[in-house]
Amino acid sequence: MSQYVGYTLLLYSAAVVTTRLFAFEYISLADICATVVSVVAVATLAFQDTNEALSVPISGLNLLAMYLVWKHHVRGTEPRKEDMRGMVCIITGCNSGIGVETARNLAKMGAQVIMACRNMKSGEAVRLDILNSTGNSNVQLLELDLGDFDSVRSFVAHVEGFYSKVDVLINNAGVMTPSRGESKQGIEMMMQTNFLAPFLLTLLLVPMLHKSKCARIVMVSSTMHRFTCLQHGGFDFDDMFSKSDFGMFKSYGQSKLAIELFKFEFNRRLREAGSHIVINSLNPGSIKTSISKDWHWILANGHELIQPLLKTPVSGAYTTTYVATNKSLRSTSGKWFENSKIVQQTTKASDPQDAKRLFDLAEKLVNFEIVFNQNHIK
Ligand SMILES: NC(=O)c1ccc[n+]([C@@H]2O[C@H](COP(=O)([O-])OP(=O)(O)OC[C@H]3O[C@@H](n4cnc5c(N)ncnc54)[C@H](OP(=O)(O)O)[C@@H]3O)[C@@H](O)[C@H]2O)c1
């Protein structure tokens, strides 16, 4: 009997680790050790002669190993509840998925939350739900369509008109589309929504972030940028908008690689200018959300099928909440986080030449150039 339980546990941990490997996520030595322990435990159970006395501790070991893999990759670590009262936090794309839970976490911590959404109807429903579940009435909904640079500019004008500062900007909104689309400005949709519009939003909000005592920019990225690095050896400047070679994973990964290069270069410029603003990026994990709503049915059903191996939107919001609020990270900048831990970034995602080239190019594409002056330095 314990053999079958053992096999099941082993299969589960192996499936979790395999899914993470396919998602290009960081697998720690502890995860590998836990899976090896599972294999050894199952093998021992399979070959021993029905020695029940021995099978109990071995099954216990197997259970512990599986629990560690599940805890690390599926459940994650719940962030500490910080005191965010008086903090103005903007989060984009929080009418669905992990953005909802991130906004809820910030509201629970007492922050003044600005929900920046394009779908005002579902945004309002989420806002009311957050109000009811947290008792925080300081949750506002503002319209922002990242598919249109004009909307980004109007959003920032609104924020400047109604708020005195911004403490936290979470660029969470993102899309992963199976076919190529273009924005109002004629830019490939994933590059526009995932990178260029958040790039413009961030630069335009620098004066407001500067007014905060401890400003943070959090970029919700993805490990899929590593896929693009592997496939193309880095950012594909010749086909930035996937005109000649579009692929859902390739083009999505390219837009997330752009985020990584932006973070690298912007962090460098902020430090050089003596600014106190910090910028970090993260992988939220693999989560079942509506990101897969437009995928091919085989992929979408596959995503559905592996749900027990994925994080929930609640646990998917842990790393973002941690990076946005944890007091110990006040002056941490330019880092990459997975499962609420700093992980070494790949070389191509922190290539200084590519990062500078892309930053300069993005400034031209959004028609806005940031010039740091004495007003940006504390
Ligand atoms: N789920 C995962 O496994 C996973 C893994 C790695 C990274 N991520 C990243 O995590 C972030 C959140 O994704 P999710 O999984 O929570 O997916 P989701 O449920 O689809 O949420 C995406 C959010 O982005 C918003 N959005 C899309 N296009 C927008 C636009 N033009 N303007 C304003 N908002 C827009 C969506 O609003 P609408 O309802 O209006 O479309 C939605 O609120 C994304 O950046 C994604 O790339 C997710």
Description of the structure:
- The protein has 378 residues and is α/β, with parallel strands linked by helices.
- The chain has 2 domains: 2-75, no CATH class; 88-376, 3-Layer(aba) Sandwich (Rossmann fold), CATH 3.40.50.720.
- 52% of the residues lie in helices and 10% in strands.
- It has 13 helices and 8 strands.
- Strands 3-2-1-4-5-6-7-8 form an 8-stranded mixed sheet, sandwiched between helices.
- Strand 7 (336-338) and strand 8 form a beta hairpin.
- Bound molecules: NADP nicotinamide-adenine-dinucleotide phosphate.
What's the helix and strand layout?
Blueprint: H1 2-22, H2 29-47, H3 52-75, E1 88-92, H4 98-108, E2 112-117, H5 120-134, E3 139-143, H6 149-162, E4 168-171, H7 189-210, E5 216-220, H8 224-232, H9 248-272, E6 278-283, H10 297-305, H11 313-316, H12 318-325, E7 336-338, E8 341-342, H13 352-366
Helix pairs in contact: 1-2, 1-3, 2-3, 4-5, 6-7, 7-9, 7-13, 8-9, 9-13
Bound molecules: NADP nicotinamide-adenine-dinucleotide phosphate.
In short:
The chain is of the alpha/beta class. The chain has helices at residues 2-22, 29-47, 52-75, 98-108, 120-134, 149-162, 189-210, 224-232, 248-272, 297-305, 313-316, 318-325, 352-366; strands at 88-92, 112-117, 139-143, 168-171, 216-220, 278-283, 336-338, 341-342.
- What is the count of structural domains? 2
User: What's the rounded overall pLDDT mean?
Assistant: 90
| pLDDT < 50 runs, ≥5 residues | none
Shape: globular
- Radius of gyration from the alpha-carbon trace, in angstroms: 22 Å
Count of DSSP strands: 8
Question: What is the end-to-end distance?
Answer: 66 Å
Would you tell me which CATH topology of the largest domain applies? Rossmann fold
From the coordinates shown, what is the CATH architecture of the largest domain?
A: 3-Layer(aba) Sandwich
Structural class: alpha/beta
Strand content: 5-15%
List all distinct small molecules, including ions and cofactors, that are bound in this structure.
NADP nicotinamide-adenine-dinucleotide phosphate
CATH top level class name of the largest domain? Alpha Beta
Level of helix content?
40-55%
